[in-house]
Amino acid sequence: MSDPRITQLAHVLVHYSLQIKAGDLFRITGNTVTAPLISAIYKEALLAGAHPFTNVSIGEVEELFYQHSNDTQLRYISPLRRQEVERIDATITLLGEENTRSLSGIDPERIALARHARRELQERMMERAAAGTLRWCVTQFPTAANAQDADMSLRDYEDFVYGAGLLNTDDPVAAWEQVRVEQQRLADFLAECDTIRLTSAGTDLTYRVGGRTWINAAGDKNFPDGEIFTGPIEDSAEGVITYSFPAVYSGREVDGVRLVFRQGKVVEATATKGQDLLLSLLDMDQGARYLGEVAFGLNYGIQRFSRNILFDEKIGGTVHLAVGASYPETGGCNQSGLHWDMVCDMRTGSEVFADGELIYRDGKFLI
Fold first, then answer.
1. What is the DSSP string of 176-245?
2. Residue 86 DSSP code
């Protein structure tokens, strides 16, 4: 018996998050294990009059690619992919894996090489999104592998995923609209600020955001959602940050990450686990050692770490700062093949100052 929440999620994604309309060329991407949600979204898009098509991958194919490709193949970009990026009106990526550790044995430099080669596709998608000609969204389909990563049973993980998306409310769309109103109040406040200082255990970091745009993320680009973010002034970060949770990249964990910034650039990077991957990614290109995003997690319905950045960066009472590419709509200018979010827990013993004024303490805004 299918879970009715899958149909409900598909309806919210198609009509609220992506606002699919008649005539849209709509790409749906996911692993075979996400097939129930792919089918539900496909049907909903057809009923809306769109032209959906699927891009479905087999779990082991990515691992085979990294194991057996030569450098030319790693760098190759299909002209069909370039055409898609230019022609689609909307795209959704469904997260959900059969094995979240399938790339754990791959040399991180091979992963970095391939990701760097695809930088132009990422940048073009960001450009189109900023110009309003491409709508995109990322969501999660609950799988046994993701549940294991989160230390949950599959049933508990399903409740966690759908609850974080407010699908347990009478009207999820109305609930997300209310989230949008409250977050906009905070975004408007921060838009008048310039210098932000974060302090917590192992962290004392200052960056500037004057003139940048704070984006209110309330279920359109990510689902579930619940954050406000911007792109900091590229050469402004000064100080140190120690991330509270493991940073996960392609299924590999990097734990105990500590970054030191001078004039915006990471000049020192250490980790208690996975330092080889950390350094490989930071050396991917010139922009990888600069911040591309700074954000506050505001979804207080998410309170536990799940090893899934879609949820972890939204945990109410956290901040996340991503190294690598900026989102152009924020006014950020940093370019990189990398965009790697890492999360710092601010719920205990923390303070945030804006232009010298205390505005946030222990995971909550004071304004």
1. HHHHHHHHHHHHHHHTT--EEEEEETTEEEEEE-TTPPPEEESSSSEES--EEEE---TT--EEEEE-SS
2. H
Q: Which parts of the chain sit beneath pLDDT 50?
A: none
Q: Which residues, at least 6 apart from 121, have a Cβ–Cβ distance to it below 8 Å?
A: 77, 81, 82, 85
d(CA 297, CA 329): 19
Q: What is the pLDDT of residue 1?
A: 58
Contact 205, 176 (CB under 8 A): no
- The strand pair at 203-208 and 238-242 is best described as antiparallel
Domains defined along the chain, listed by start: 4-164 (3.40.1830.10), 174-365 (no CATH)
Q: Helix or strand or coil: residue 255?
A: strand
- The whole model's pTM is what? 0.89
| Residue the block writes with tokens 């990026």 | 85
What value, to the nearest 5°, has the Cα angle with vertex 138 and ends 137 and 142?
A: 140
Distances from the Cα of 49 to the Cα of 26, 116, 264, angstroms: 11, 36, 47
Kindly give the residue spans of alpha helices, DSSP state H, lying in 88-191.
108-117, 119-131, 144-149, 154-164, 172-190
Q: In what order do the strands lie in the sheet with 25-31?
A: 51-57, 25-31, 90-95, 135-140, 222-223
